[in-house]
Amino acid sequence: MTQMSQEEIVSNTKTVLQGLEALRVEHLTLISNLTEGSKKDPDKSEIVMKNIENIELGLGEAQVIVVLASHLQNIEAEKQKLRTQVRRLCQENAWLRDELANTQQKLQASEQTVAQLEEENKHLEFMASVKKYDDNQENEEQQEKSRSDPVVELFPEDESEERHNMSPTPPNQFANHANAGYEIPARLRTLHNLVIQYASQGRYEVAVPLCKQALEDLEKTSGHDHPDVATMLNILALVYRDQNKYKEAANLLNDALAIREKTLGENHPAVAATLNNLAVLYGKRGKYKDAEPLCKRALEIRENVLGKNHPDVAKQLNNLALLCQNQTKYEEVEMYYQRALEIYEMKLGPDDPNVAKTKNNLASCYLKQGKYKEAEILYKQVLTRAHEREFGAINGENKPIWQVAEEREENKLKNRENTPYGEYGGWHKAAKVDSPTVTTTLKNLGALYRRQGKYEAADTLEDCALRSKKEALDLVKQSKVAKILGVTEENRRQRMKDSDNYDEEGKRSQK
C-alpha cells in the first residue's frame, strides 16, 4: 500500500464525509418508516439506530480530520513565513556587520590621522618657537650657496665601533645627503624639514607616509620627471636605508638618478650626489665592485665642475679609497688617500679635522698591509698635532701622549709609578666632541702597540681613549639638557610677554 500525501488524505476524507452524510440521511428516512405506520419493527429499528450512531461517529471523526488538516496547513504557512523572516533578518544582520566593519575601519583611519596631525601640530609649534635658529641656518645656507653639495661619507670615522650602528641619521647629515647640489623650493621646505626631523628621531612610521604623500602630490602637480620628485625620492631612500631596506632604497636612488640626469644634466653636482649615495648603499651591502664605478663617476663629475683640488673632491677620494681597500687594492688606496690628504692640507690647512681623519684612514691601510712603521708615524702625527693645539709647543715638560706612553713602557720594570697618570691626565680633553678622530687614533695606536708587545704603552693610550670618550658623552648630555632648558625658558618668557600684552590691550579696551 502506497503512502498517501496530506492533500490526498484530506480529499478522501471529504469524499467519505459526503458519503456518510448521505448514508445518515437514508438511515434517518429508514428509521422514520420503521417507527411510524403499520410496519413497525423494533428489532430493525434498533439496528438502524446503532448504524446511525456509528455513522455520526464517523462523520465526527472525518470532520476532526478535515479541521486538523486545515490547522496543519495554517501552521505550515506560518512556518514558511517565519523562515522567510529569519532569512531576511540574517541578511540584514550580515549587512549591518559589514557596515559596522567599514565604520570601524574608517574610525581607526580617522584616529590615526588625528594622531598624526596632532604630532605634526606639536612639531610645527616647536619649529615656530625656535624659528630664530632656522633664520640663522638660512643665512648660513645663503653663504654656502656657491659651494656644491658635501659628499656623503661612506663609513664613519671609528669603523670598529660605529660601522654597524643602526641609529638614525642626524638631521643635518640627512639634509646634506638627500638634497646636495639642489636647493629645496619654498613649497617643500616645511614638509622636507618634518620628514628629516621624524627620520632622524627614528620615527619612520610617520616619516615614510609623509614622504610618500609628498611624492604623490608632486607627481600630480609637476609630473614624475621633476627635480623636486628626485629630491623626495632621495629622502625616502635614506629613510629606507636607515631601516635596512636596501633593495627599496636602491630602486628609489636609481629612479632619482635617472630624473636628475634627464632634468639637470649628466654632469650636475646633484647627479654626483645621487651617484655617491648609491655607492654608499652598495658599500654598506658589501657590493664594493658595483659601488666603485659609481664612485669614480661621481669623482669625475666633481673634478670637472669643482676643480681637482676642491675639498669635496677629497671627500669623494676618501670614499673611493675605502671601496678599494675592501677589495684589497692597496696601491690605489694609498694613492687616493695621499691625494685627498694633499687637497685637505692645501685648501683647509693642517688643523682641519679631515686631515687627521684621512691620516687615520691611510694608517689603517698600512696596518692591513703589515706596514706598522708607516702607520705608527701617521698616528703619532695626528696625536702630536692635537697636543700642540691643546697645550702648545712640545718640549721636555710638555710631551704628547704617545711619548708619555712609550716612557711608561720603558720604565715599567723600574717603577710602575714613575710616570703617574696625573701628569697627563688632562690631555684626553683634546679629544673633543667635534673631533672624535683623536679618540680613534688613541685606540688604533694602542692596538698597534699591543701587536708589538708594548702592553704598558697600549694600556696608557686605551685608558686615555676611554676617559676622552666618557667626557665627550658627558658634554653631549650637558649640551642637550642646556638646549632643552633654554628653549623651555624662551617659551616661558614669550608666554609671559604675550600675557602682558593681552592685559594691556584689555585695560585699554575697558577705558
Description of the structure:
- This protein has 511 residues and is mainly alpha-helical.
- It is 78% helix and 0% strand.
- The chain has 18 helices and no strands.
- The protein has helices spanning 6-35, 42-129, 131-143, 159-162, 171-179, 186-200, 204-222, 227-242, 246-264, 269-284, 288-306, 311-325, 330-347, 353-368, 372-391, 401-410, 436-451, 455-510.
- It is rod-shaped, with a radius of gyration of 47 Å.
Could you give a short description of this structure?
With 511 residues, the chain is mainly α. The protein contains 18 helices and no strands.
- What is the C-alpha radius of gyration, as a whole number of Å? 47 Å
Number of strands: 0
Helix/strand-derived category reads mainly alpha
**Which range best describes the helical content: under 10%, 10-25%, 25-40%, 40-55%, 55-70% or over 70%?**
over 70%
Q: What general outline do the C-alpha atoms trace? A: rod-shaped
* Run of helices and strands: HHHHHHHHHHHHHHHHHH
Distance between the termini: 114 Å
Number of helices: 18
Sheet having the most strands: none
Beta fraction = under 5%
Explain the layout of strands and helices.
Layout: H1 6-35, H2 42-129, H3 131-143, H4 159-162, H5 171-179, H6 186-200, H7 204-222, H8 227-242, H9 246-264, H10 269-284, H11 288-306, H12 311-325, H13 330-347, H14 353-368, H15 372-391, H16 401-410, H17 436-451, H18 455-510
Helix pairs in contact: 1-2, 5-8, 6-7, 6-8, 7-8, 8-9, 9-10, 10-11, 11-12, 12-13, 13-14, 14-15, 14-17, 15-17, 16-18, 17-18
